[in-house]
Amino acid sequence: MEGQEKSSKTKKAIILSLCVVTLVFACIMGTYAYFIINVNNDDRQNAQIDTGTMKLTFADGNPTINERIMLGENKTKTFTLENTGDLDAVVSIDWLDIVNTYMEGSLTYTLEQSETEGSGYTEIIGKTNVPVTSTAFTTTLAPDIEIPVGKKYYYNLIITFNDLQDVDQEADRKANLSTKFTVSQPSTNRNYDLIIDPNGGTLGDTNTVQTLTKKNGETETIGTPTKEGETFLGWKISGYGSSLADGTLTIGKSNTKVVAEWEKPIVGVIKKLGVTPIPVTDTMPDFSAITTASDAGLYSMEDDYGTSYFYRGAVTNNYVKFGKWANDSSNGSKAGKNMFWRIIRVNGDGSVRIIYDGTIAYANGEASLDRCSHVFQVYNSNYDDAKYVGWMYGGTLGEPSTSKAQAQTNETNSTLKSLVDVWYKTNIVDAGYSGSVADSIFCNDRSTPGQEATGLYSDTGLGYGTNLTGYGVLARFKNGNSNNYTPIFKCPQKNDAFTVNDEEKGNGALTYPVGLITADEIVASGGKYGTTNSTYYLYNPAAHSWSLSPRAFIQTNSLMTLLRSGRLENSLDLFGSGDVSPVINLTAEYFKTLKGTGSMSDPFRAE
What we know:
Blueprint: H1 2-12, E1 19-20, E2 27-28, E3 35-38, E4 44-49, E5 52-57, E6 64-67, E7 74-83, E8 89-100, E9 107-114, E10 122-129, E11 133-147, E12 152-161, E13 177-184, E14 191-197, E15 210-215, E16 219-221, E17 231-238, E18 243-245, E19 248-250, E20 256-263, H2 265-273, E21 297-302, E22 307-312, E23 319-324, E24 338-346, E25 352-356, E26 374-377, E27 392-393, H3 404-407, E28 412-413, H4 415-429, E29 442-443, H5 451-454, E30 469-470, H6 472-477, E31 497-498, H7 519-525, E32 544-554, E33 557-564, E34 567-573, E35 578-580, E36 583-586, H8 588-591
Parallel strand pairs: 14-20
Antiparallel strand pairs: 1-2, 2-3, 3-6, 4-5, 5-7, 7-12, 8-11, 8-13, 9-10, 9-12, 14-15, 16-19, 17-20, 18-19, 21-22, 22-24, 23-24, 24-25, 25-36, 26-35, 27-28, 29-31, 30-32, 32-33, 33-34
């Protein structure tokens, strides 16, 4: 009981702030503590109606009300309507350009009418909510009032600030009501504007705003618009009494606007993840330090498509169950088993980048080679030319490269790419899962920033043949000794941005949309060169997994970075033995259909 009394007293302390100014009749202008009605022009106005002339007059002769109004109280404004024409009239009183940001039901009104000033009032509009809208529009206050020629009627407009039971009305403190009033044609005979705005999308064969003319109760069929790269959420309607059901809009007694609402794919994916990302502008992890338990979370960084959100640390909510190993002899003991993955990041286009992680959901740090698709594989069978650091390279196997452009022409598959492509075709394409996989960039960064950037002695920066060359990842991390230890998700060279069909942002060189994790993604997730880290989700003490990032060509040996026992290795010879965990990207549309919470016991998965 005591708590209820305290709540009531708190709500009673909220004071209505209204603001009404008239062009034709009256105006409400907002103030923190007062209900104010100001008239900032003459106290009477004439309105010509087809069947007569109406004169509006403030009967009390007072152009303002300046009084406090508390929850549960009301204020009244009195006016008259007089037909000074020579014909009987039917008119409508309208809220003109009303904006009301109070809670639904906080403000209500009634309208009383009398033929005698000060007495004999009859309620002609019962308790009605003041229309709630953040966008100004015109709507009916009182429809179809009959006023015979020469007749004068008296009106009380009573606005009430309601104390809503069991509702927190704190938001009403900062709300606003602004409007004007007018008289016009009777609402039932009046034409209203119906404005259809696809909001950047295309409806039918047009992307322009359409304006139609409709009467109250008339309908219009409204289809579903489309917009490249975004999802249609529905139509937002502003118009008193108008409604939309099953694609049919019914006009109420006001001008009505319908605006298409859209959502970028990445927004829907982030909602599905059920986590709040940490924006890059708020904080950026210290990538030069290994992760701790407090670092676990979803952070943001720009990529080639926009803002990407990446998992870092020992997160436990990025498990995905997607696909099964093909049930054939080539897959050995894995045949017919489920595939589990971990989310690396959400790409800027909304697709979700995932890395293969086993036939069951493994806990962070659990050692198992089952968390790899292949073990003990070479990256390239040849290694004596700088071109062999490429996921694809120029010329045929054994043919020396003669320029950087020739070395980095995407003509011939690396040994590992051919292996991964066969795996993808067998287990994804042939199994019917490829429709859920997006064509997003895999960056095989072969940029050659030179000796000053890489710190590699005698770095020529040439990137072909047997010229000693350091690559972009070496410049960014310098064996872990650099103070500027910052990964990137933007691919420095378009030629290295491997895609299947996308040639606007990517190179369009792939046969299948599958690749490997990059050194930058490993560092972003929690890895560091030469330092073992067990407090992040990629930690697998059993695996020595290939990345897609070349480090350097030195003497006769091309070197790739490697995720080994939870740390990023400085290098691995191309002919060395490494393990493989393929990376793919799920489409935003598919990912949003998955159920689950992303936990080890409840992974994101299809029905």
